[in-house]
Design brief:
Chains A, B: GO terms for molecular function: GTP binding; GTPase activity. The structure is a homodimer of 364-residue chains. With 364 residues, chain A is an alpha/beta fold. Helix content of chain A is 49%, strand content 11%. Chain A folds into 3 domains: 55 residues, Single alpha-helices involved in coiled-coils or other helix-helix interfaces; 212 residues, 3-Layer(aba) Sandwich (Rossmann fold); 54 residues, Helix Hairpins. Chains A and B meet through helix 4, helix 7, helix 12, helix 13 and helix 14 of A and helix 4, helix 7, helix 12, helix 13 and helix 14 of B.
């Protein structure tokens, strides 16, 4: 740096009055010490169960850690929380950017805390590898909910694979439930396979839409309509009310084209406005109806058991693949074989065989 | 066995005149010897390339074998065939039982051989673990095509997993192409995930339907409509013609609800009758149009390269899982943990971790 800062300038300001520290240095020191302390799993568990939000946040950070040493401890905490979890409703919310997911979740969350619920809002956003979560990353988008004592907002964990991101969020659900949150909202963006991952960890799946130019069904991704237990058309206010009603009719007709659901539930379409709050209470009523039905026909518990099994097998598959694709004896050989397959020099099956033989030779 | 056979009966017949053997014992002996001979991979390859149908059948049997010793040889044969493969159009045909898949394929296949094509008909039917293929298992359902010199029909390979069944069929495509078949038809039944597997090995995907009671779209499985490059309404003959035309209109409208395809192709709906042969030629014209478009916009080659990469990674994943789930140190522990997860005694993630640690301990 050759350039020197000018010692004076026409734009210089007078130095102001010295202000006292806002945060006491002693108190801050305590917090830092607590943060750095290697808290035992048992302490985290008892902290979570006694409603200590710092313990919850720290346990989530542990779950999200990519440090292999944290894995055993994270599993210990989750297992300790498990007997106190599972007493909640898990709601998945998806919708492409622009439908107003944040404002909807804020209005919906405030409605829920208003009727005595404790709400945790999590997110699955596999695109957020570096930013530590673009969805919900900017908490200021949910100003009211952030300040709410009975709400907890956590951005998406980061990770290289959707599988990893989803697994971490699934584990965080258990921690939040043990803490006492009775309503878990999982947000995801309508891109890629993240809906399928979220669908496999929630009880109720809600697709958020806005009314458009009449061709409402254009561009809805395969499978998303079928996964939806409800389609909620947001921004039904002002000039949009009429369009939203038309969209409701069209979605209702489209939903009839899908086969009946195993849950016995007939998916519903409703309209709402996160601004005027019209229709927000109806969304919760609809979910309550769903709960009543699926608990009485035992679908609710069955699905959760199936989901648990799914996550065990998913975790195994993910780790087996990770082990293979991160194997130092595999990486270069894989690139080589990928090219050979692309150029039709070797069959995909023979290439796989070469890679596997090499892998098992070094891992046996 | 206490009961003795009666020595004479009122129902006895006179013994007939001794007939000469229909098949020469010497010739039969040759065939059996050839069958039992452990033919070298090089011989199978040169047999296939010179148009020897016995060599093709034997190579397919090798590919379908579950004997691990056959794996290396099968890969050798496929690699030898690879430079001579890939010059074909691969057509996937799906449709629920009752839409007339066999009669359609027979009529379609006869049309193709009539215009000088060489047609191989394969099947993916993951339900056929014991019967060695329920689809196409009964070749008499395609009487005409079976007798056709320019057609080859092979039932679905058996296997415990869809992945295995699909992989074997994908390998068989390469053998058939090297033999000289220029049109490969892959049949699958509209059940489970088999369409997705077939979709990932074909260039063109055709959904066969019949016209019903007006609610044509009821019960179409998620994703199948979106995968389809064409919907062909079969049995459009006699009293059905009008209904079939109505169904065509309805499907056309429904197809417009899906986003545009990466191929640049707009899916088409047509009607046909495998009995009167009306519209069968149009199906082939449609596929020719598709070929022209996707070869000129390079989608055709790109998709095949992507599919090759997909099959390499799929094969790796399948084998990694097989190795884990068949590991003698894993099986009992897996059952134990499945139960614990079901009963909420352990988290799915901790259970996965226990199983993986155990697996890698024994496999390191």
């Amino acid at each position: 740096m050759d350039q020197e800062k000018p010692k004076s300038s026409a734009l210089s300001e007078k130095s102001g009055v010295e202000q006292p520290e806002i945060v006491s240095k002693i108190a801050a020191g305590h917090i830092v010490a607590l943060r750095n302390k290697n808290v035992a799993a048992a302490d985290l568990i008892s902290g979570i169960l006694s409603g200590n939000i710092t313990a919850l946040s720290r346990a989530i950070t542990l779950v999200e850690s990519t440090n292999p040493e944290h894995l055993a401890k994270a599993n210990e905490v989750i297992n300790g929380c498990l007997p106190h979890a599972n007493q909640s409703i898990r709601i998945g919310i998806t919708g492409v950017p622009g439908v107003g997911k944040s404002t909807f979740i804020e209005a919906f969350g405030k409605h829920l805390t208003g009727i005595g619920k404790k709400v945790a809002v999590l997110a699955v956003d596999p695109s957020s590898t570096i930013s530590h979560g673009s969805i919900l990353g900017d908490k200021t988008r949910m100003e009211e909910l952030v300040k709410d004592q009975n709400a907890f907002i956590r951005p998406s964990p980061s990770g290289e694979t959707l599988g990893g991101v989803a697994r971490k969020t699934r584990e965080t659900i258990t921690l939040c439930e043990a803490f006492g949150f009775d309503t878990i909202v999982i947000e995801t963006v309508g891109v890629g396979q993240s809906e399928t991952a979220v669908h496999s960890m929630v009880d109720f799946f809600l697709l958020l839409k806005i009314s458009g130019a009449g061709d409402e069904l254009q561009g809805i991704k395969r499978g998303i309509m079928e996964m939806a237990d409800a389609i909620v058309i947001n921004k039904a206010d002002g000039d949009n009310i009429k369009k939203a009603r038309l969209a409701k009719t069209e979605f209702n007709r489209a939903l009839h084209l899908f086969p009946a659901k195993k849950s016995g539930w007939t998916p519903k379409v409703s309209t709402c406005s996160a601004i005027t709050k019209d229709g927000i209470d109806e969304v919760w009523e609809m979910i309550s109806e769903f709960l009543e039905l699926t608990k009485s026909n035992h679908y609710f518990g069955e699905k959760r058991r199936e989901q648990n099994q799914y996550w065990m097998l998913e975790t195994i598959d993910e780790r087996l693949k990770n082990h293979f694709y991160n194997d130092k004896n595999t990486i270069a050989l894989l690139e080589q074989n990928k090219k050979a397959v692309q150029n039709n020099e070797i069959s995909p099956f023979a290439a796989a065989q070469i890679l596997l033989e090499n892998y098992f030779k070094f891992n046996h």
